[in-house]
Design goal:
Length: 171
């Protein structure tokens, strides 16, 4: 989604790639959702071409903010998250797979964000993917427009993920 595509080389994904000294393929698409919605690009429709076909060693999934913003039914969101993670696990059994929580957002009720984060956490556990919880690490001031993190928050995201990955992943 836009969080993964904004700020170009100063985006958390590129900063993380630099910290790890690893090659990056950012498959983020502006206005992407996990679930199928007519006006959005769906992660369910594109995960094979955008992730699996690249045969990566490590996968970091950061989807769900637009689903929560559009109030996708939590049952549908769970089903679609299960579809994506099980598809990745089936086709990339040796890859390290990480999922990222939704960030705290003043535009989305904390109840909804926490509900989606619980779904992501549960499906991750069921799929043997590591869940990265970023929710408590940010405050409303990190989101000047209520949804998108500042450049400084992108640095924070990259550092939190880096600290986890550098302990667990050999690149």
């Amino acid at each position: 989604d836009s969080i993964s595509t904004m700020y170009g080389s100063e985006n958390y994904s590129y900063l993380l790639s630099d910290l790890l000294g690893a090659q990056l393929r950012n498959a983020g698409v502006n206005r992407s959702t996990l679930s199928k919605m007519s006006e959005f690009v769906s992660g369910v429709d594109r995960y094979t071409a955008d992730i699996v076909d690249g045969n990566p060693d490590t996968v970091l999934i950061a989807l769900g903010t637009n689903d929560a913003l559009q109030e996708v039914n939590p049952g549908v969101f769970r089903r679609d998250y299960e579809t994506v993670l099980s598809g990745i696990r089936k086709r990339l059994p040796q890859s390290n797979v990480y999922t990222m929580s939704l960030l705290r957002s003043p535009l989305i009720s904390s109840t909804r964000v926490l509900q989606y984060n619980n779904i992501i956490r549960e499906v991750s556990k069921e799929s043997d993917a590591a869940y990265i919880d970023l929710y408590e690490k940010f405050s409303p001031t990190d989101f000047p427009d209520g949804l998108h993190p500042t450049k400084e928050a992108h640095v924070k995201i990259a550092r939190v993920i880096y600290e986890l990955l550098r302990k667990e992943v050999t690149l």
